[in-house]
Amino acid sequence: MRVAVDAMGGDFGPRVTVEGAVKASREYELEVLLVGVEDLIKKEFEKVNRSRSKLSIVNASEAIGMGEGILSVRKKKKSSIRIGAQLIRDGEADAFVSMGNTAAVVYITKAILGALKGVEKPALSLLVPSLKGLTLLIDVGANVNCRPHHLEQFAVMGHTFMSSVLGIKRPRIGLMSIGEEESKGNELTKEAFNRLKESPLNFIGNVEGKDIYSGKADVIVSDGFTGNIALKVSEGVIETFFYMARTEIMKNIFAKIGFFLMKRNLKKIYKKVDYTEYGGAQLLGINGVCIIGHGRSNSNAVKNAVGLAKDFVMNKVQEKIQNEIAELSHRLGQAGG
Question: What does the alpha-carbon distance between residue 337 and residue 51 come to, in Å, rounded to a whole number?
Answer without folding.
Answer: 59
